[in-house]
């Protein structure tokens, strides 16, 4: 009997419907790979050595573990299946680490380290970000191998364990191991769809940079009765400094942070795109952010500024004193149309002009991702869209770049390879917070999408 694409898709559905995919994912969710917690470092190794590595070896992938050249990052796994030196090579990627479980904040009956099924939702830390998504990719590769007996192309699977702390060491690894990671196409799954019921592909990501703004005026606090209104209050100074960065409705006032020109094909794509997070609580007011832009343009084609935290004194135990200092952790999200090297210098110039030379700026460690956008005219983009349309019965959305931070630029620059992301989560998945979940219906469809895509890649 000749194997067919339809047969591979049917096998993918069976793999899901019989609970095999859920069982594999449950074992991965059970490993508490919190990369932000130093005490979990052994779990990062366990995830790669005891779960991912053995699973991929079953499909004739050769496994190699790379130690991280950066002590703040975790190990890497590279799995390689070399079928034909003349065939194209796919590099796919995922991250096995997750953000903190914060189990005390999850709803009663939910455990971040176990899958809990409630209707269409599968709860658990990493279900959406990113264990569920790279598990979909791995399972789809397996369906093609089992149905066809081969992929028809060479495949490399890279799993890192430090994405949630900024991917330390990933750039160095790609720079020093270029030959081992060489590929014709980078294609992976991470992040949310723009609408839970419509598949899309993304050609890169917005960049992100985190930094601290601080005002440090003196040693120790001073009695608020004797000195309040007399000496400078760092909390007030910093609050007013922050208020110069945007207006009261979030429109950015630092001109050098904004895109100077957005390509016409990008603008046209975003104008016709509807965002649907699948959660009514995430619908933003029309008057927040840059006036005149659609929601898609605001989050995918523009710069965003966010205050992540602000503190002066001890809010949990305040004293009657004028505080000595104040600090805010902030973040900028930006597109490939912005000069990222000038973001913090531009802020320095802006604060000085506004009369706040006492506000210090310090970049926050590794918390940076560069922006990237693959050329929409790249032939791999058309191939991907055509394959997905064949599986789905409709043409998926083409997104110039995702809104979140991803290491697209690292792979694009170091390996000179087109970068494509196919996300399988949705905006309401609550990743990075309590009650993270994946939608079962989307996951089942995603297995079909990726299986069909890998089948089609093997026809060249």
Textual characterization of the structure:
It is a single chain. The protein contains 14 helices and 21 strands. By secondary structure, it is α/β, with parallel strands linked by helices. The protein is globular. 32% of the residues lie in helices and 21% in strands. The mean pLDDT is 93. It has helices at residues 5-17, 20-29, 41-57, 131-148, 170-176, 178-181, 224-227, 234-243, 264-271, 295-300, 343-353, 379-392, 408-415, 440-457; strands at residues 62-66, 76-81, 89-95, 116-118, 121-123, 154-160, 185-188, 192-193, 200-202, 204-205, 207-216, 222-223, 304-312, 321-322, 325-334, 360-369, 372-373, 397-399, 419-421, 425-426, 437-439.
The CATH topology of the largest domain comes to Aminopeptidase
Whole-number tally of structural domains: 2
CATH class of the largest domain: Alpha Beta
Give the helix proportion (percent range).
25-40%
**How would you classify the helix and strand content by structural class?**
alpha/beta
Beta-strand proportion: 15-25%
Unreliable sequence segments: none
Strand line-up across the major sheet: 1-2-6-3-7-19
Q: CATH superfamily name of the largest domain?
A: Zn peptidases
Cα radius of gyration in angstroms: 23 Å
Mean pLDDT across every amino acid position: 93
Terminal Cα span:
22 Å
At CATH level 2, the architecture of the largest domain is 3-Layer(aba) Sandwich
Query: Which term fits the overall shape?
Result: globular
**Tally of extended strands?**
21
